[in-house]
Every structure is written in structure tokens, then in C-alpha cells.
Design brief:
The complex is a heterodimer of chains A (263) and B (217). Chain A has 263 residues and is mainly alpha-helical. In chain A, 53% of the residues lie in helices and 11% in strands. In chain A, helix 4 crosses helix 5 (149-173) and helix 7 (211-222) crosses helix 9 (238-262). The model of chain A is unreliable at 1-72 (pLDDT under 50). Chain B is elongated, with a radius of gyration of 20 Å. Chains A and B meet through helix 3, helix 4 and helix 5 of A and helix 1 of B.
């Protein structure tokens, strides 16, 4: 990611995470693209990489306006006023739901930026982000608050991103995407065109039936008249109508079966 | 697919208090204590090899046993350290020097003993007894390590599982060397190098399945 436009259409803080291969960690760099968005959200996000005990630690001062209304303790802050994710995770380990929610919301952009460096598809990026968040949830007891939070987060994110790439690679190697013309749908509304063709074929076949059978089918099947109504309208007896309908359906079945064999 | 913000709400609602993992060195020490206990139990059940006193005067044997034991200790420490996210994976290289010394002593023993004993040194009775010791030592250690490291199931478990298996193989080989008179070259190779290669390759190939078995995702 080399430009501030890398974060997609949504306004908001945009960031770049740059690998520092020589030292084995990544350095986040933030672009503030839409100051108006930040003003209306009453939130600012300036992220810095802090070193503690010679290790990297990510800190962020993201704080949503509605957080102040919540009964939970305020976010833990460093002496320079930035939120301390190590403390937030320590509180989360003790069962502080609100600290945990704020922490997950704050780290999501970082995880998304990490994923976007490796994954191209937008929905795959979001899948990866969710996978990383669920992994963090599952292994949150492995975090030691005495150690920096950044390497812990980046290690988990990188492993899940690589696992996701491998999984998608395996699936992609023996699955092919369907083209639109290969798609079929269960709801009948989606198949009106095919039904129209079928209906025309049935009407043409009925036209070729003998007159008595054609009339019987038209009244009883197409116009859905009762036997009595059809008998009154045509002057035929009920028994004659039944026989004519039976023979008509038999003839139609034979006709379509022979057409199916020929096609 | 649910949205990420919904997922965050769900996860936050599910944030029950958790007990923090103890430091990796402490956990490695616990596993090594278990390994020592199992070695003592196996020795008391089977008895030490009859010629152990003589063997302990041979520098190659002593070096081999010490290197195998050190490999087991260092591989266990490395597996526990590297299993914690954020710790360097270079910890996995910790047992390599001891492993090289261990295999070098085996190689040296093979070269010097091959001419003297020859390849016809296999004894089926001792092999069966060795297999019983192998199972008695390696199975409980494997289960203990799998359970203690189950949280790496979602964190690329292959390298950690291979390092843990090396620890188990080294401890098992130590037990076999102390308990059984393995003097034939083929036997020494099979019960040292063979076990190490078998354990490490099986764990590398099936790490995902093994960890999924003890910690379903």
C-alpha cells in the first residue's frame, strides 16, 4: 500500500503498515484522509509505535464519543495520553467486556491493513479480519501483560493470514467459478423464460389433438372448469369428458416422450 | 456472513474472565518434571541395563546420553517458548547444537562398532521390550504436551509440534539407552535416529489433525 487511497471508499483514518524486515516487526503509519469525518465522529486516531523494553508496542488514542456514556472504566492511558492496549487486554482477560470491545474495535483497522497487504479480494480481507479476531478471542489467555501487545497481535494476524491464503489456494486449485449462464435458480420467478417456452410447446401440442379431446383439455385443464360445467357448456356427458381428457393426456404424454427421445 | 462489528459485539459479550497462561519456562519445567517422573517409574518397573556402570565409564556413551537428554530439555523449552504468539520463532533453533552432538555420537559409535559387531545384531526379544518402554515413555509425554500446547491449534502448529516431538523422542531415546542394552549398531540407530525422525515427521505431517483432536476449533 503506497497511497492514502488504499483503504477503500469509506471515509476515515487510513493507515499503512510497513514491514521492517530487519527488525522483525511492522511499523504502522497513519494517513488522516478525511478530517471532517473525524470531526463529526468526535474521534481522532493517531497511532504511534512505542518501544517498551526494547520491543514494539502499538498504541492508539481512538475513543468514540458514546464511550463516555458507558458505565465501564475509561480506557487506560499512557502518560502521553494514548490508549494502552496492553492494559485493555489485561482488563479483557479479567472479564471487562467494554474494554475488550473497545480494544477489538481499535485493532480491527490494523488487522485489515495487514490482511490487505496479502489478500486482494475485499470479501476475503473481511473474512481474514474476522478469522483473526476470533483467533485472538480463542487465545487471549496467552497474552502476558508484562510484554508488548504489538508483536503478539501481529504474530497471530500473520499466521491466520498465511493460513487463509493456503486454504484459499487449496480450494482454488480444484474448484472453478460458475459463469452466469451456468447458474440455475430454484424460485420459479427466475425461470419464467423457460416456462414460456414450455407453455407454448404444450399449446401447440393441444392444437394437434382431435377436436373432442382438445375441447375437453381446454375446458377442464386450461380453464379449470368442473366436470358439470364442462358438460353443460359442451353438451357432452361427464363420462365422455373423462374419457376424452384421459385420451388427450395420454396422447400428449406420448408426444412429449417421443420429442424427448428425438432431442 | 455477519459483519465485523457484529462479530466484535458477540466476542465482547462472550469475554468471560480467563486464566492467563503461566510463563513458558515454568510450563516447560512442569513437563520436564513429568518426563523425569516417567523415567524414574520406567526405571523402577523395568530396571536399569545390567552393564550401565561399565557403560558410564565410556565417554562416547556418556556424551550421547547427555546430549540426548539436553536435546530433550532444550527442545521442550523451545516448543513452549515458540508456542506463545509474539515470541521469536528462532527459539525453535535452540535444541539444534545438542541434537547435532547427539547424532554425532551415534554416528561415531556406528563407525567404530560396525566392524566389530556387524549388522547382524538385532535381537527380537530386546526389540519387543524396547517397544514396550517406548510406548510407556512416549505416550504420556505426547498426550501431556498436546494438551499443554493445545492453544497453538490455530497458530500454525507444525514447527512447534515438530520441536515438541523432538523433545519426546530425545527423552524416549534417553530412557531406552539407560534401560536396555542396545549395543548393536542397527538397534542404536533404530531406537535413536529412527524414533526422532519418525516422531518429528509424523508430528510435522499431522500437527493440524492432532491439535484439532485435543482442541476442536
Amino acid at each position: 500500500m503506497n497511497s492514502p487511497e488504499c483503504c477503500g471508499p469509506n471515509p476515515g483514518p487510513c493507515q499503512e503498515i510497513r514491514p521492517d524486515a530487519a527488525k522483525g516487526y511492522v511499523t504502522p503509519k497513519i494517513y488522516l484522509r478525511d478530517k471532517r469525518f473525524l470531526m463529526t465522529q468526535n474521534s481522532g486516531m493517531s497511532t504511534q509505535a512505542h518501544r517498551r523494553d526494547g520491543k514494539l508496542s502499538f498504541v492508539s488514542d481512538t475513543q468514540k464519543s458514546d464511550d463516555a456514556d458507558r458505565p465501564s472504566e475509561p480506557a487506560a492511558r499512557r502518560p502521553d495520553g494514548t490508549a494502552d492496549w496492553s492494559v485493555a487486554m489485561a482488563r479483557a482477560q479479567e472479564g471487562d467486556h467494554e474494554a475488550y470491545r473497545r480494544l477489538l474495535e481499535a485493532i480491527t483497522p490494523y488487522v485489515r491493513a495487514l490482511a490487505a497487504r496479502q489478500v486482494r479480494n475485499r470479501s476475503d480481507i473481511e473474512d481474514t479480519v474476522q478469522d483473526v479476531l476470533m483467533t485472538i478471542h480463542a487465545v487471549r489467555h496467552t497474552y502476558d501483560p508484562a510484554r508488548p501487545f504489538g508483536p503478539w497481535l501481529v504474530a497471530i494476524a500473520n499466521r491466520r493470514i498465511v493460513d487463509g491464503l493456503r486454504r484459499r489456494g487449496r480450494v482454488g486449485s480444484h474448484e472453478a467459478e460458475l459463469d452466469p449462464e451456468q447458474e440455475t435458480f430454484w424460485p420459479s420467478e427466475a425461470n419464467l423464460q423457460e416456462e414460456t417456452v414450455d407453455a407454448r410447446a404444450v399449446r401447440d401440442a393441444i392444437e394437434r389433438l382431435p377436436a373432442g379431446q382438445r375441447e375437453a383439455v381446454r375446458m377442464l385443464k386450461l380453464e379449470e372448469m368442473s366436470l358439470k360445467e364442462a358438460a353443460a357448456a359442451s353438451g357432452m356427458s361427464v363420462a365422455a369428458l373423462k374419457v376424452a381428457t384421459h385420451r388427450a393426456l395420454k396422447a400428449l404424454r406420448k408426444l412429449f416422450e417421443s420429442q424427448g427421445r428425438n432431442s | 456472513m455477519r459483519s465485523t462489528s457484529n462479530l466484535i459485539d458477540l466476542l465482547a459479550a462472550d469475554a468471560a474472565p480467563v486464566r492467563r497462561l503461566r510463563p513458558p519456562m515454568v510450563r516447560a519445567a512442569c513437563w520436564l518434571l513429568l518426563a523425569a517422573l516417567i523415567l524414574v517409574l520406567a526405571a523402577s518397573h523395568h530396571g536399569l541395563r545390567p552393564d550401565l556402570a561399565t557403560k558410564l565409564t565410556q565417554p562416547v556413551f556418556v556424551t550421547g546420553i547427555a546430549a540426548a537428554m539436553l536435546t530433550g530439555v532444550l527442545a521442550a523449552v523451545a516448543a513452549f517458548m515458540a508456542s506463545v504468539p509474539g515470541r521469536s520463532r528462532r527459539w525453535l533453533l535452540l535444541p539444534v547444537p545438542a541434537l547435532l552432538i547427539w547424532f554425532a555420537t551415534i554416528g561415531y559409535g556406528c563407525l567404530t562398532d560396525w566392524v566389530r559387531i556387524g549388522p547382524a545384531g538385532l535381537s527380537p526379544g530386546e526389540t519387543a521390550s524396547c517397544f514396550a518402554t517406548l510406548m510407556m515413555v512416549s505416550l504420556p509425554l505426547s498426550f501431556a504436551l498436546l494438551i499443554m500446547l493445545r492453544y497453538v491449534a490455530r497458530l500454525s502448529p507444525g514447527p512447534v509440534a515438530m520441536c515438541g516431538s523432538l523433545a519426546i523422542a530425545a527423552m524416549t531415546a534417553t530412557a531406552l539407552s539407560l534401560l536396555h542394552p542396545l549395543d548393536a549398531t542397527a538397534m542404536i540407530l533404530m531406537w535413536n535416529v529412527g524414533i526422532a525422525l519418525l516422531f518429528v515427521s509424523v508430528s510435522g505431517r499431522f500437527a493440524d489433525h492432532l491439535f484439532n483432536w485435543v482442541a476442536p476449533r
